[in-house]
Structure formats: structure tokens, C-alpha cells
Design brief:
By secondary structure, this protein is an alpha+beta fold. The chain has twelve helices and 17 strands. A hairpin with a 2-residue loop joins strand 5 and strand 6.
Length: 373
Amino acid sequence: MKNKIKVAILYGGRSGEHEISLQSAASVIRNLDQTRFEVVPVSIDKQGKWCYQDYSLLTSSTKALPVFKNAPEIFIPQRPLESEKNLLTVNGQKETRIDIVFPVLHGPLGEDGTVQGFLELAEIPYVGAGVLASALGMDKEKAKILAKDAGIPIVPYMTLRQVLWEKEKSLCIKKIKKDLQYPVFVKPANMGSSVGVHRVKDEKNLEPSLMDAFRYDKKVLVEKAVNAREIEVSVLENIDPNQLPLASIPGEVIPHHEFYSYEAKYMDEKGAELIIPAHLTAQQIKRAQEIASGVFIALDCEGMGRVDLFLEKESGSFYFSEINTIPGFTTISMYPKLWEASGISYKELLTRLIELALARHERKKTLCREYKP
């Protein structure tokens, strides 16, 4: 029998979305094709320590993977020798080979290009977007700038940097009222899962909302709140690199809270209703898929991405909200659910993502790394 592909599932991380990663990783491990892949669990704790976890101790976990504090620490060579490529070193001794890393990390220091850059240096294949696309997708401001440049509509917004906000609060408050009007959304520029996000109805709630958002990032977006439906589309890199990415059927999120908050997503089982497929016309479906694919291309994404859109109720216009380059993979997450509804099972989706990453790595190896006139 052909040797199984060893997949290091990288989970946890040093962001406010650590706990969500534990849930996503548990789902990925449960749904990975065990006949083709061998799981090598690697955790990153909140202090940033990478540890080799005992797979036999994780299988009993149902909802979220544990991060055992006494697990042996690992090291991945930054510039491995050809004969020693992709070896995890556990407590100073060579322990196991890995063929590919599947980062199931959400938020800063995991989804923002930092881990991806490290894996590039180590020459290890990994699932998902590369360094640039990961960084762009994480930064809501930069993603909006590139999307707008590509002709994709966005809602009006302002960017506030913490230093400027602290110096010129009154001026910033006046500008928000004049240019955006209330209500507005306040969002950390580099967070996901609605961490630090607030819907602000009036001026008196603006400052405390911004103070909370600045706890997570030094750059915060203030975005006009449009009366809209929340539509999401899953995007998958095409097996043929010369073809356009694949876009799933759209889904709709109907929050039962004031908006699709962290609590609605992960703490309240009845916090939101996911409608798959979304009740849209054929023309609206086509438009949502076009925008989602357009964002994926504009940000130079690879692997996967979940694109979130606003569908304004009055005008029927779509607006790009944000993209998640490592979307949630929990049992209730939209990304795998939309692909299941589009004809790709969870297990097949994971297999495709791994195959895409391995093929992409092989293509990269053909690039010339030195100047040869």
C-alpha cells in the first residue's frame, strides 16, 4: 500500500481566535480521509510555543482539540538539508517526517502571512493562501483598497490609527458623523470572527467601542452600516491553475443578535440562522459569485477563501465586506457547508486543498532561485 501523506495539522495560535481554531482543527481531523492521510497534530499555545501533540489523546475530543501544556516542544528547521527536509524535531531528537502543513489558525500570527512566511523559508508545502494574500486578506483596509481598484463595490468607511485617534478624538468624531453618519460598524483592521466588532448607533457609544477595538489592533475601521442581508460565498482554487477559481452557491447568515457577533457565531447555538442556499435570484447568485471570484483574484489568493458580502435591501446592490483566507472549519461553519451544498463533501474538500497545495509547491520548485543570464 502506498505510504500515507503525513499532514501536520497546525492549530491554536496567539490570537483572540485561539479557541475557534481548536474547534476548526477538531473538525478537520475528524473529516480527513484516514485512508490517504496521516495526522500529525501540532499545537501553538497562547505563549507561542509549538508542541507535538499525541494523536491518540486527541481522538476522544468531540468539539475542540486540547492543547496539552506538558506536550514536547518541536522545532522545524528554517533551512533544512535536502536529505532532512520536512522533519519535526521533538525535544532535540528527530521524531517524524511531515509532507505538508495544514494551518487551521485564525487571526493574527496565523492567518496573516507570518506562519506562511515561516513555512516558505522552511520550504514546506502548506494549505491555503501565500504570504501576500494572507496579509492582504487579514488587513480589512488593504483588502478593500485592492477590491475597489478592481472595480468591486465597497461600503464607505474610514481608517483610524490609534496614535491619531488619541491626539485628535474630537476631530475624528466629527468626521465620522459628517462622512458616514450613524449607525456605523467599528472593526479592528486585522481580526476575524467579529472579535472587537461593535455596531454603534450614536456618538455616545463610539468612543468605548473604539477603545475596545484598539485593544486588538492599532488600526481600526469605521464602516457605514447599510441595511443589508449578509451573503457568503466559498471560493476554491481551480485544479487547473489557468482557469478561474470555483465559487460555491451563496449562503445567507441571519443573525438573531444585533449583528453576526462573536457570541452569535460561537457561544450561542441559536445565535444565527444559516440559510443554504440563500434565497436569491439567478442573476443575484451570478453576481455574488462574480464578486467573490473577483476578490479572490484581486488579492492573489490560493487554496481557499470565504468572501462575505452585503446585499443592500433597498437598492439590491452587492458590496464586498471581507475575505477569510483560513475560514472557519467547525461543524457549523459556512465554508465547508457551502461546498457540501455545491456538491463537494467535507472529506473531498480537505483532500482537494491538500492536493492543490502539493501541486502548487511543485510548481514553485521549478522557479529559478539565482540569476542565470
